Protein backbone atom coordinates (compact mmCIF):
# COMPACT_ATOMS: atom_id res chain seq x y z
CA UNK A 1 0.00 0.00 0.00
CA UNK A 2 1.31 3.44 -0.96
CA UNK A 3 1.95 5.67 2.04
CA UNK A 4 0.34 9.08 1.50
CA UNK A 5 0.99 12.26 3.47
CA UNK A 6 -1.93 13.30 5.65
CA UNK A 7 -2.84 16.59 7.27
CA UNK A 8 -1.09 16.78 10.64
CA UNK A 9 1.81 14.56 9.53
CA UNK A 10 5.36 15.64 10.24
CA UNK A 11 7.28 15.28 6.98
CA UNK A 12 10.82 15.84 5.76
CA UNK A 13 11.73 17.94 2.73
CA UNK A 14 15.22 17.01 1.45
CA UNK A 15 17.04 19.08 -1.18
CA UNK A 16 19.87 17.98 -3.50
CA UNK A 17 22.52 19.44 -1.20
CA UNK A 18 21.31 17.40 1.75
CA UNK A 19 19.56 20.28 3.52
CA UNK A 20 16.59 19.04 5.52
CA UNK A 21 13.39 20.78 6.59
CA UNK A 22 10.81 19.34 8.98
CA UNK A 23 7.27 20.65 8.49
CA UNK A 24 3.87 19.81 9.98
CA UNK A 25 1.31 19.55 7.18
CA UNK A 26 -1.60 21.95 7.66
CA UNK A 27 -4.21 22.65 5.01
CA UNK A 28 -3.88 26.19 3.65
CA UNK A 29 -0.31 26.76 4.92
CA UNK A 30 2.84 27.01 2.82
CA UNK A 31 6.47 25.98 3.17
CA UNK A 32 8.46 29.15 2.50
CA UNK A 33 12.21 29.61 2.20
CA UNK A 34 14.69 31.41 -0.05
CA UNK A 35 14.39 28.31 -2.25
CA UNK A 36 10.76 29.14 -2.96
CA UNK A 37 7.25 28.13 -1.89
CA UNK A 38 5.47 24.77 -1.69
CA UNK A 39 1.81 24.84 -0.60
CA UNK A 40 1.02 22.18 1.99
CA UNK A 41 -2.08 21.27 -0.02
CA UNK A 42 0.23 20.11 -2.83
CA UNK A 43 1.67 17.52 -0.42
CA UNK A 44 -1.41 16.37 1.50
CA UNK A 45 -2.89 13.22 0.00
CA UNK A 46 0.15 12.60 -2.18
CA UNK A 47 2.60 9.65 -1.86
CA UNK A 48 5.82 9.99 0.08
CA UNK A 49 9.15 9.42 -1.65
CA UNK A 50 8.30 11.59 -4.63
CA UNK A 51 9.97 14.72 -5.99
CA UNK A 52 8.31 18.15 -5.78
CA UNK A 53 9.35 21.64 -6.85
CA UNK A 54 9.00 25.11 -5.38
CA UNK A 55 7.60 27.92 -7.49
CA UNK A 56 11.24 28.83 -8.23
CA UNK A 57 12.01 25.36 -9.56
CA UNK A 58 13.99 24.10 -6.57
CA UNK A 59 13.55 20.32 -6.22
CA UNK A 60 12.87 18.47 -2.97
CA UNK A 61 12.14 14.88 -1.97
CA UNK A 62 9.14 14.38 0.33
CA UNK A 63 9.97 11.76 2.96
CA UNK A 64 8.86 10.41 6.32
CA UNK A 65 11.34 11.72 8.94
CA UNK A 66 13.37 9.15 10.86
CA UNK A 67 14.14 9.26 14.55
CA UNK A 68 17.62 10.40 13.47
CA UNK A 69 16.08 13.39 11.67
CA UNK A 70 14.06 14.30 14.75
CA UNK A 71 17.16 14.17 16.98
CA UNK A 72 19.22 16.26 14.57
CA UNK A 73 16.46 18.88 14.45
CA UNK A 74 16.32 19.20 18.25
CA UNK A 75 17.45 22.67 19.42
CA UNK A 76 20.89 22.31 21.04
CA UNK A 77 20.59 24.59 24.02
CA UNK A 78 22.48 21.90 25.93
CA UNK A 79 24.63 19.05 24.66
CA UNK A 80 22.30 16.35 23.36
CA UNK A 81 22.90 12.61 23.16
CA UNK A 82 24.28 11.88 19.68
CA UNK A 83 22.36 9.45 17.44
CA UNK A 84 25.31 7.02 17.34
CA UNK A 85 25.02 6.68 21.13
CA UNK A 86 21.22 6.81 21.36
CA UNK A 87 20.58 3.68 19.32
CA UNK A 88 23.11 1.66 21.30
CA UNK A 89 21.65 2.90 24.58
CA UNK A 90 18.28 1.43 23.52
CA UNK A 91 19.88 -1.98 23.03
CA UNK A 92 21.79 -1.91 26.29
CA UNK A 93 18.74 -0.83 28.30
CA UNK A 94 16.64 -3.52 26.62
CA UNK A 95 13.93 -1.04 25.66
CA UNK A 96 10.94 -2.18 23.61
CA UNK A 97 7.17 -1.60 23.60
CA UNK A 98 5.69 -1.92 27.08
CA UNK A 99 8.85 -1.13 29.06
CA UNK A 100 9.04 1.52 31.79
CA UNK A 101 12.18 3.66 31.73
CA UNK A 102 13.28 6.47 34.05
CA UNK A 103 15.54 9.26 32.79
CA UNK A 104 17.27 12.04 34.72
CA UNK A 105 18.59 15.04 32.84
CA UNK A 106 15.88 15.65 30.26
CA UNK A 107 17.68 18.57 28.61
CA UNK A 108 16.26 19.33 25.16
CA UNK A 109 14.38 16.03 25.13
CA UNK A 110 16.30 14.29 22.33
CA UNK A 111 16.97 11.05 24.22
CA UNK A 112 13.52 11.24 25.81
CA UNK A 113 12.10 11.23 22.28
CA UNK A 114 14.16 8.14 21.40
CA UNK A 115 13.03 6.34 24.55
CA UNK A 116 9.37 7.18 23.88
CA UNK A 117 9.51 5.88 20.32
CA UNK A 118 11.01 2.63 21.61
CA UNK A 119 8.52 1.89 24.41
CA UNK A 120 5.30 3.19 22.82
CA UNK A 121 2.42 2.49 22.67
CA UNK A 122 2.11 0.54 25.91
CA UNK A 123 5.29 1.65 27.73
CA UNK A 124 6.13 4.82 29.62
CA UNK A 125 9.03 7.25 30.00
CA UNK A 126 9.49 9.18 33.25
CA UNK A 127 11.90 12.06 32.72
CA UNK A 128 13.28 14.32 35.47
CA UNK A 129 14.76 17.79 34.99
CA UNK A 130 15.52 20.49 37.54
CA UNK A 131 15.48 23.43 35.08
CA UNK A 132 11.99 24.62 34.09
CA UNK A 133 13.20 26.28 30.88
CA UNK A 134 14.63 22.95 29.67
CA UNK A 135 11.37 21.16 30.46
CA UNK A 136 9.52 23.68 28.31
CA UNK A 137 11.92 23.01 25.44
CA UNK A 138 11.66 19.24 25.92
CA UNK A 139 7.87 19.45 25.89
CA UNK A 140 8.05 21.24 22.53
CA UNK A 141 10.44 18.59 21.18
CA UNK A 142 8.16 15.76 22.25
CA UNK A 143 4.97 17.45 21.03
CA UNK A 144 6.48 18.03 17.59
CA UNK A 145 7.51 14.36 17.39
CA UNK A 146 4.03 13.23 18.50
CA UNK A 147 5.25 11.24 21.52
CA UNK A 148 4.36 13.47 24.47
CA UNK A 149 1.48 11.16 25.45
CA UNK A 150 4.01 8.46 26.34
CA UNK A 151 6.17 10.66 28.59
CA UNK A 152 5.77 12.11 32.07
CA UNK A 153 7.95 15.19 32.53
CA UNK A 154 8.82 16.00 36.14
CA UNK A 155 10.49 19.12 37.52
CA UNK A 156 12.40 17.64 40.43
CA UNK A 157 15.84 17.43 42.00
CA UNK A 158 16.43 13.68 41.91
CA UNK A 159 18.35 13.92 45.18
CA UNK A 160 14.82 13.68 46.62
CA UNK A 161 14.40 10.32 44.87
CA UNK A 162 12.27 8.99 42.03
CA UNK A 163 8.54 8.35 42.24
CA UNK A 164 8.83 5.09 40.28
CA UNK A 165 9.56 1.63 41.66
CA UNK A 166 10.45 -1.56 39.79
CA UNK A 167 11.32 0.34 36.61
CA UNK A 168 12.76 -1.79 33.81
CA UNK A 169 15.58 0.65 33.09
CA UNK A 170 17.08 3.93 34.24
CA UNK A 171 19.47 6.35 32.52
CA UNK A 172 21.40 9.25 34.07
CA UNK A 173 22.61 12.07 31.83
CA UNK A 174 24.08 14.16 34.63
CA UNK A 175 27.42 15.70 35.57
CA UNK A 176 27.76 13.66 38.79
CA UNK A 177 25.71 10.47 38.32
CA UNK A 178 27.56 8.67 41.14
CA UNK A 179 25.80 10.96 43.63
CA UNK A 180 22.39 9.46 42.76
CA UNK A 181 23.03 5.72 42.72
CA UNK A 182 21.02 5.07 45.89
CA UNK A 183 18.03 6.75 44.27
CA UNK A 184 18.62 4.75 41.08
CA UNK A 185 18.63 1.45 43.00
CA UNK A 186 15.36 2.34 44.69
CA UNK A 187 13.69 3.00 41.34
CA UNK A 188 14.93 -0.10 39.49
CA UNK A 189 13.51 -3.60 39.60
CA UNK A 190 15.87 -6.42 40.66
CA UNK A 191 18.22 -7.02 37.74
CA UNK A 192 17.04 -3.78 36.11
CA UNK A 193 19.15 -2.05 33.47
CA UNK A 194 21.23 1.03 34.39
CA UNK A 195 22.99 3.41 32.03
CA UNK A 196 24.82 6.72 32.16
CA UNK A 197 26.85 8.99 29.89
CA UNK A 198 29.74 11.20 31.02
CA UNK A 199 32.31 13.10 28.93
CA UNK A 200 35.54 12.59 30.91
CA UNK A 201 37.53 9.65 32.31
CA UNK A 202 37.68 11.00 35.86
CA UNK A 203 33.87 10.98 35.90
CA UNK A 204 33.93 7.38 34.72
CA UNK A 205 36.26 6.45 37.60
CA UNK A 206 33.99 8.11 40.16
CA UNK A 207 30.97 6.33 38.72
CA UNK A 208 32.67 2.92 38.69
CA UNK A 209 33.58 3.30 42.35
CA UNK A 210 30.00 4.26 43.16
CA UNK A 211 28.51 1.37 41.18
CA UNK A 212 30.69 -1.07 43.10
CA UNK A 213 29.65 0.41 46.44
CA UNK A 214 25.94 0.33 45.57
CA UNK A 215 25.64 -3.28 44.45
CA UNK A 216 25.56 -2.94 40.68
CA UNK A 217 26.85 -5.85 38.60
CA UNK A 218 27.87 -6.75 35.04
CA UNK A 219 29.37 -3.28 34.55
CA UNK A 220 30.62 -2.14 31.13
CA UNK A 221 32.37 1.05 29.95
CA UNK A 222 32.24 1.74 26.22
CA UNK A 223 32.85 4.47 23.65
CA UNK A 224 31.42 4.54 20.13
CA UNK A 225 33.11 6.09 17.08
CA UNK A 226 31.24 6.67 13.82
CA UNK A 227 33.06 6.97 10.48
CA UNK A 228 30.93 7.91 7.44
CA UNK A 229 32.06 7.12 3.90
CA UNK A 230 31.85 9.14 0.71
CA UNK A 231 29.01 7.61 -1.30
CA UNK A 232 30.78 7.48 -4.66
CA UNK A 233 31.12 3.98 -6.08
CA UNK A 234 34.15 4.83 -8.25
CA UNK A 235 36.20 6.14 -5.32
CA UNK A 236 34.68 4.83 -2.11
CA UNK A 237 36.69 6.03 0.89
CA UNK A 238 36.17 7.43 4.38
CA UNK A 239 34.82 10.93 4.72
CA UNK A 240 37.26 13.64 5.79
CA UNK A 241 35.50 14.00 9.15
CA UNK A 242 34.10 11.54 11.64
CA UNK A 243 32.01 11.63 14.81
CA UNK A 244 34.59 10.56 17.39
CA UNK A 245 34.42 11.09 21.15
CA UNK A 246 31.04 12.30 22.34
CA UNK A 247 31.06 10.63 25.74
CA UNK A 248 31.68 7.45 27.69
CA UNK A 249 28.78 5.05 28.08
CA UNK A 250 28.51 3.09 31.30
CA UNK A 251 26.05 0.22 31.68
CA UNK A 252 25.22 -2.06 34.62
CA UNK A 253 22.51 -4.17 36.21
CA UNK A 254 20.98 -3.84 39.66
CA UNK A 255 22.31 -6.75 41.72
CA UNK A 256 20.63 -8.39 44.69
CA UNK A 257 22.39 -10.07 47.61
CA UNK A 258 25.03 -9.46 50.26
CA UNK A 259 28.31 -10.02 48.37
CA UNK A 260 28.25 -8.80 44.77
CA UNK A 261 31.89 -7.78 44.23
CA UNK A 262 32.68 -10.94 42.26
CA UNK A 263 29.92 -10.04 39.78
CA UNK A 264 31.03 -6.45 39.21
CA UNK A 265 32.51 -6.91 35.72
CA UNK A 266 33.58 -9.63 33.32
CA UNK A 267 35.30 -7.32 30.83
CA UNK A 268 38.94 -7.98 31.72
CA UNK A 269 40.78 -8.59 28.51
CA UNK A 270 38.18 -10.85 26.89
CA UNK A 271 34.86 -10.47 25.15
CA UNK A 272 31.57 -11.93 26.34
CA UNK A 273 31.32 -15.71 26.36
CA UNK A 274 27.91 -17.28 25.93
CA UNK A 275 27.00 -20.94 26.31
CA UNK A 276 23.94 -22.48 24.73
CA UNK A 277 21.55 -24.41 26.95
CA UNK A 278 22.37 -27.68 25.18
CA UNK A 279 26.15 -27.19 25.15
CA UNK A 280 28.20 -29.49 27.31
CA UNK A 281 29.99 -27.99 30.29
CA UNK A 282 33.05 -30.14 29.64
Quick summary of this structure?
This protein has 282 residues and is α/β, with parallel strands linked by helices. The protein has 2 domains: 10-65, Vcp-like ATPase, Chain A, domain 2 (Roll), CATH 3.10.330.20; 68-263, Rossmann fold (3-Layer(aba) Sandwich). It contains 6 helices and 15 strands.
Structural account:
21% of the residues lie in helices and 28% in strands. The chain is an alpha/beta fold and 282 residues long. The strands form four sheets. The chain has a seven-stranded mixed β-sheet, with helices on both faces. Helix 3 links the parallel strand 7 and strand 8.
Task: Indicate the overall shape.
Answer: globular
Count of DSSP E strands?
15
Q: Let me know the CATH homologous superfamily of the largest domain.
A: Vaccinia Virus protein VP39
CATH class of the largest domain: Alpha Beta
How do the strands line up in the largest sheet? 9-8-7-10-11-15-12
Write down the secondary-structure element order.
EEEEEEHHEHEHEEHEHEEEE
Architecture (CATH level 2) name of the largest domain: 3-Layer(aba) Sandwich
Strand content: 25-35%
The SS-based structural class is alpha/beta
Low-confidence stretches: none
Q: Taking all residues together, what is the mean pLDDT?
A: 92
Count every helix, treating DSSP H or I runs of 4 or more residues as helices. 6
Tell me the Rg in angstroms: 22 Å
**CATH fold-level name of the largest domain:** Rossmann fold
The rounded distance between the terminal residues' Cα atoms is: 54 Å
- Biggest sheet record: 7 strands, mixed
Helix coverage percent: 10-25%
Domain module count: 2
